[in-house]
Amino acid sequence: MSPIAASRHARLALIALLAGGVAIGGSPIFVRLSEVGPMATAFWRVSLALLPFFLMSRMARQGDETPAGLRDHLLLLLPGVFLALDLAAWHLSLHMTSVANATLLANLAPVFVTLGSWLVFRTRITPIFLSGLALALAGVIVLKGGPAAISGGQLAGDATAIVAAFFYACYMLSLGHVRARFSTLRIMVWTTLSAAVCMLPAAFFLEGSMLPATLFGWSMLFGLAFISHVGGQGLVTYALAYLPTAFSSLTLLLQPVVAAILAWVLLAEPVGMTQAVGGAIVLLGILVARRG
Known about the structure:
Low-confidence stretches: none
Number of domains: 1
Distance between the termini: 32 Å
Strand content: under 5%
Mean pLDDT: 80
Order of helices and strands: HHHHHHHHHHHHH
Number of helices: 13
């Protein structure tokens, strides 16, 4: 590839990365404005996204990647189970705490990924990572208003968001096993299908109401599936092919900022000074941990 073409691809990738970060950052607003419960919203999020992923996979014609046996099928389905648990916890947290808190604390996933890599794969943990972890935890305390406010009313919602971060880390770790053998589109199809199958009984038996009552309700579900899930993840995946992963990961920290701004404008959720400072400390801790 010529330098001119490489430069053009890099510029397009940067635009795609920023657009993808904004699209994903807007997903909490779709969840909050959904007319069905958090579990049903999670089900429609992956179910409606399944068709575009399947069509793109068919167009790519990657028939040589067909799973060979039961073990391959199980490996491809496992990330979807963790994704379902992640979405269930995160969507639930968005109804229990502020959008800013839920989105910010869900970004602790890289910390759990590193800890999981150390436990499962014995990956070495550096002092820089531990410093970032300590900084992020300190930021969470500041975010909640200090040690005296830890028992506040939104603590359960914040804790649920951290649980979502843990399951997202499990999702990422399980992807590491299958990514070496199968393409991104093949993985997305199987993972999305698995997540939809797991979410259906949870949504039906825990919430009952599965269908939005108005056209606006359906538009929120389609927006969540096509804009945030398919569009956001697709743009980010495209950008990662042309930009350094470290730089990309820093830019994607725009997601909690975008979510907080949209929640302030559309949902009238103010961001106080203590919350802003605590959020900045958490983001700084995540940045340091990722460098480690």
